[in-house]
Design brief:
By secondary structure, the chain is mainly alpha-helical. It has twelve helices and six strands.
Length: about 350
């Protein structure tokens, strides 16, 4: 009987010791994952794709986000978060507890980078910006056709593919062009959306003020209707720069205006055969809905805007004032044109 009692006592003591050890370990684990972590200041950490729980814990420990790899793994497994931790680039705040770190990784709220594409750039210039974005991955591929990329600010995550970024720009431009085509003025001398895109690319390069875009578009449309050459300097620059792949760091000369190219709108009537850059949404809207005006000329006013004219005689007077450095006030809403900026008259 005494032996049985001793056995039972030893069994009870063993169970008590075991439960005490388990309870102590559980309490230590709780404190380790719930208390503030070792980070003294916020830190950005990249969790590579296809990384398991053990590898994630190792990365976090190496970056000083957590203290103990095993407790993080066990805490994640016991809390049910072990299989929901997502790869990406995350920012962890100072003192973040391992539990908070798990919540951040499970949320998938990665750091978002910004890529801003200015209006009017050529496709080659845009791809240069895409290639230079360090958080993107892969090669963007060959430049898309001119005018197929929408200039705007794009948000993306670390490791997003450059080809996917280019596809986003293509989809955005296709959608914007379809929308402005549906809203276009019904009397435009255009039969397809691409013509609006081409005109918008000229407006984008000619205009320097938002309130002049629709007016500049109207000047070009009026010239098209009359069979007059558009005489747009940016089209000549596009031709001389090998379609935007090279820089032209000088002013145009009269010899340049005779360059043999279908993009030279001084010698070729009508729209150029394609866009000369990638216009933004404002230029697209201006090309689709030009101002109602019968103006055919414009010239720089020396203050960032332009002065418009209906007749060649009126335009020549404006050009004379421009050449003499006189201050010319704009006579309404508008934007720039080629012969105007260079002080030339259209024939």
């Amino acid at each position: 009987m005494r032996g049985l009692l001793r056995l039972l006592a030893w069994a009870a003591l063993t169970v008590a010791l075991f439960l005490g050890l388990v309870g102590g370990a559980a309490y230590w684990l709780y404190l380790d994952v719930a208390n503030p972590g070792p980070l003294a200041e916020a830190r950005t950490v990249v969790i590579p794709a296809r990384t398991g729980l053990a590898e994630i814990a190792a990365v976090l420990a190496e970056q000083g986000v957590i203290r103990h790899i095993r407790s993080f793994e066990l805490g994640a497994a016991l809390s049910g978060r072990g299989s929901s931790l997502l790869a990406g680039e995350y920012e962890f705040p100072a003192g973040a507890s391992p539990l908070h770190v798990m919540d951040i990784l499970a949320s998938g709220k990665t750091i978002k980078h910004r890529l801003t594409i200015p209006e009017g750039l050529t496709s080659a210039e845009i791809l240069t910006l895409v290639r230079a974005s360090p958080a993107l991955d892969g090669d963007p591929g060959p430049p898309p056709s001119e005018g197929e990329l929408m200039p705007e600010t794009y948000l993306y995550g670390y490791g997003d593919h450059r080809k996917d970024m280019v596809r986003r720009m293509e989809r955005a431009m296709a959608q914007a062009l379809a929308e402005v085509w549906e809203e276009r003025r019904p009397d435009l001398p255009f039969s397809m959306p691409r013509e609006v895109l081409v005109l918008a690319s000229l407006v984008e390069r000619e205009a320097s003020r938002e309130d002049e875009r629709a007016r500049i578009a109207a000047v070009f449309v009026n010239r098209l209707r009359l069979g007059m050459p558009l005489q747009s300097d940016p089209t000549v620059i596009y031709a001389l720069s090998d379609r935007g792949t090279k820089r032209l760091d000088r002013r145009l000369t009269h010899t340049d205006l005779a360059v043999s190219s279908p993009y030279n709108t001084y010698i070729s009537k009508g729209l150029p055969p394609g866009p000369i850059g990638n216009p933004g949404i404002s230029a697209l809207r201006a090309a689709a809905r030009p101002a109602f005006t019968d103006e055919l000329y414009f010239v720089a006013d020396g203050a960032g805007g332009h002065v418009f004219a209906k007749t060649l005689a009126e335009h020549n007077r404006n050009v004379a004032q421009y050449r003499h450095g006189a201050s010319v006030e704009p006579n309404g809403e508008a934007r720039p044109s080629p012969e105007a900026r260079e002080g030339r008259t259209a024939q």
